[in-house]
Automatic annotation (TrEMBL):
Entry annotated with the keyword Transmembrane helix: yes
TM region positions: 20-40, 75-92, 99-117, 123-144, 156-178, 184-204
Keyword match Transmembrane: yes
Annotated keywords: Membrane, Transmembrane, Transmembrane helix
Protein name: Uncharacterized protein
Record organism: Alsobacter metallidurans
Length: 212
């Protein structure tokens, strides 16, 4: 049976304790899946782990000049993953109609426009094209996926990747989507964020979303 999540109730003024608990549990489980991907699987492919704490450090350095220590940067990373993104998911998914489709179109369009600009200057590499093709195909599965909940959860994962590398990375003085560094790091981050966002959103929706 298709699970339609397009039409949702208006955002409650105060979420229930059950809603909050499952948001945090979903965020925690999603982050643990991310950690396995980032710290254990990614090094086998790239030779080193994904380092979201370094992005936090770069952001603080760029905007304040302060050199944040590793421990508080890791705390910020865990707080964002367990609390920040789940709360943002709840607000977005409960207050915006067709939110997942909007995010899908936005991420795909901006990624495509950027690569088109790179291609215009003659700097487009085959790895980036294959990456774009993967993102395009995965995004397009929304139109054939019989389960709208699963499609929406994938959309949320894609958005968390774009937020980290398409918004936060440039704000930290790093390349857009980190594609100038090759593409391998960006792709592994994309896969990791897909896993994180998908797990976090799915756990919440399956356990408490229908009552939220």
């Amino acid at each position: 049976m298709t699970m339609d999540t397009t039409l949702r109730p208006a955002l409650p003024a105060i979420p229930s304790r059950r809603t909050i608990a499952w948001l945090l549990i979903g965020g925690f489980l999603g982050l643990m899946a991310w950690e396995i991907w980032a710290r254990f699987i990614t090094p086998l492919i790239l030779g080193g782990p994904l380092e979201p704490a370094e992005l936090v450090i770069s952001l603080v350095r760029r905007w304040t000049g302060y050199e944040l220590a590793r421990f508080p940067a890791e705390v910020a990373h865990y707080t964002i993953g367990i609390v920040g993104y789940p709360v943002l998911y709840y607000i977005v998914s409960r207050s915006l109609k067709s939110w997942a489709l909007v995010l899908d179109i936005g991420v795909w369009a901006l990624f495509t426009l950027y690569l088109a600009g790179v291609a215009f200057t003659g700097g487009l590499m085959m790895g980036a094209v294959l990456f774009w093709l993967f993102v395009t195909v995965l995004t397009a599965t929304r139109f054939i996926n019989p389960n709208s909940l699963l499609a929406d959860c994938l959309s949320w994962g894609s958005f968390t990747w774009f937020n980290a590398l398409g918004i936060m990375a440039p704000l930290a003085g790093l390349p857009f989507l980190l594609l100038e560094w090759g593409g391998g790091l960006s792709f592994m981050s994309y896969a990791g964020h897909i896993i994180f966002g998908f797990v976090a959103a799915l756990v919440f929706e399956m356990k408490a979303g229908r009552q939220a």
